[in-house]
Amino acid sequence: MARFEKHPLDQLLIQLTLLLGVFIVGCNRSSQPDAPSVTKPMISVPSATPVRQAIPQPGPRADFVTSAACRKCHQEEHASWHTTYHRTMTQVASPETIQAAFDGTTLYSYNQPFTFEREGDTFYVRMIDPAWQVEMLDAGKDPWQFEDGPLSRQPVVMVTGSHNVQYYWVKGYQEEQPIRIPVAYLIRDQRLIPIHDAFLQPPERELNPPTYYWDHRFGIWNRLCSMCHSVGAKPGMDMVTKSLHTEVAEFGISCESCHGPGKAHVDFHETHQDGYQTVVVPEGVKLFSPHDADTDISTQMCGRCHNIADTKNLMEYAMHGMQYQPGDQLDEWFTTLHFDASQKDEDWTKKTYWPDGTQRVSSCEFVGTSSSACYQEGKLSCLSCHTMHEGDPKDMLTPAMRGNDACLQCHEQFRDDVAAHTHHPADSAASLCYNCHMPRSAYGFLAAQHTHRIDSPHVETSAQNKPNACNLCHLDKTLAWTADQLTNWYDQPPVELTEDDRTLAAGAIWLLRGDAVQRAVTAWHAGWPTAQETCGVDWQAPLLAQQLDDRYSAVRYVAQDAIKRLPGFDSLEYNFIAPSDERKRAQTWVIQRWLEQEHAPPSAPQRVLIHPDGKLMTDEIQRLLREQDQAPLQLFE
């Protein structure tokens, strides 16, 4: 999604936020999820605080009419859009929209307690008072270093997310400026966790705000989410009164997000109802149709949010809202942070790209798609595969595009004999174009995700750290083996490899020695049924066990999920945000259980760090762990 939390520009936003006196608590304290409540002075917040007074008021404004107006004529399109997660990206808090239990649970985040309570249809968070924290900031003190701030009881007014994770916004320091509490609700696990643990980033204690601009401590809905998670947002910064008067047409992503403001369109057709089918529609009245537009323009429409970009005029946006509209050239209003090889070692580059320029974080699909030859030289657009209508709400794929039809639209020569190209059975996962050319080498939402840069597997880039599609399936094979296949099949030139790359499985190397993204992506594939069918399931557990005490919460989460998908390990009891001692006990349990199991020996056990007699190659495992890439890494999720 389009973000502000990544460059010095974000520091400007934070400074502006503080000048406006608008504060949000933002991140987490992952070490004590079950810590007891702390007794502190309680600030009374009237139970009858109207939720609607604490959020920007949605409704028709300026040239926007909302999806309700579209429904009158476009009922089928409205109904199909209504099933999507785009619609529910931002919602007003209610029993229907809040998924967490709010049963009195207390969670600690950044040394501060957050207790979740419910009275009837109203939800509350008992937390250290935001107004007090603003006073601390104004005094030049860090409120997160104190545990004795006065508690207040804040009503939950909005929710963000409804698919993978949900975040909660409480009544803010000022009216209509909700703040996000530093807690995330994992929908798949039905549990609350400190928000820091929901993202791939170093431990909270290692975060350095001057370096890491997005550490979740600050998050004001009006600034952080309004641009992409609502329609027609206008932050409404008033430089005279130093306040925000935010307006939105609609919460969530709806009709006018993709088709543009609809007032002129609705007004025209309401006055020409009798000639609806025959009347000539003036050019200024027509709505933007992504399917009728050039592929680059329609893709840029999606790229407004699925991108890593900065607004070119921040103050203009803060005061007057989004100027870009569907159909515009994106680069007129945004600066997309495209890969630059000369800056591949820069911090911002590592947060988005692999060293070869491949996108490695989800939700910024535009930088992947736009760097692909299929987009630059062909007719590929987001709509080649995705649709907001009648697709699967999970990933918005057009039903026919779960196979190879998306690629065969242009690469017709492979339709009759795809196996001759893939060198795998035509009905296998390895003959699905996207598994090889768009592998899950990106990361997001505690899982590996398809990168949207369309490319071919290359061992040379894997030697530079990026996992390749072949070895993400053949986890037990070496890079040398993959290089031989690619040379024999596709005439790729030989690659100079290290001794480890010639003798050890790429999956083992990435799991133990890789950076945080390599470890997470590889661990996910160790639990992927397709990879398990390819390379067996009898050798992964002791290597995945090493990640149960990883420095990164996200890596631990993905590893434990993969372990539970291995035979005999579904009973693993493990809390990925528990203290290290508890995590190490689970680690020992996994290794011991593996040693006690009977399993078929791998075809080449030493590749996966197992001696021929079935014992672990402990010295080699420890060597790779000592060589692990420990450079701090925080993705732009």
Descriptors:
alpha+beta; 3 domains; 9-stranded mixed sheet; 19 strands; globular; disordered N terminus
Describe the structure.
The protein has 637 residues and is an alpha+beta fold. The protein has 3 domains: 8-247, no CATH class; 288-455, no CATH class; 457-637, no CATH class. 30% of the residues lie in helices and 12% in strands. It is built from 27 helices and 19 strands. The strands form 6 sheets. Strands 1, 3, 4, 5, 6, 7, 8, 9 and 10 form a 9-stranded mixed sheet that branches. A two-stranded parallel ribbon has the order 2-14. Strand 5 (112-119) and strand 6 form a beta hairpin. Helix 21 packs across helix 22. The longest helix has 17 residues, at 580-596. It is globular and about 80 Å long. It starts with 7 loop residues before the first helix and ends in an 11-residue tail after the last helix.
The gist of it:
This protein is an alpha+beta fold and 637 residues long.
Structural class: alpha+beta
User: Beta-strand percentage?
Assistant: 5-15%
> What is the count of helical runs?
27
Mean pLDDT: 87
User: Which outline best applies?
Assistant: globular
CA radius of gyration is 26 Å
Question: Biggest sheet, open or closed, and with what strands and sense?
Answer: 9 strands, mixed
Domain unit count: 3
Distance between the termini: 8 Å
Number-wise, the strands total 19
Share in helix: 25-40%
Poorly predicted parts? 1-40, 43-49, 209-215
Helices and strands, with pairings:
Elements: H1 8-19, E1 42-43, E2 57-58, H2 67-71, H3 75-82, E3 90-92, E4 106-109, E5 112-119, E6 122-128, H4 130-138, E7 151-160, E8 165-170, E9 179-186, E10 191-194, H5 221-224, H6 226-229, E11 230-231, E12 237-238, E13 243-244, E14 247-248, E15 250-251, H7 255-259, H8 263-270, H9 295-303, E16 309-311, H10 314-320, E17 334-336, H11 347-350, H12 365-369, H13 373-376, H14 405-408, H15 418-422, H16 433-437, E18 442-444, E19 447-449, H17 459-462, H18 469-473, H19 479-490, H20 499-503, H21 506-513, H22 516-526, H23 529-535, H24 541-545, H25 553-564, H26 580-596, H27 618-626
Parallel strand pairs: 1-7, 2-14
Antiparallel strand pairs: 3-7, 4-5, 5-6, 6-7, 7-8, 8-9, 9-10, 11-15, 12-13, 16-17, 18-19
Helix pairs in contact: 21-22, 22-25
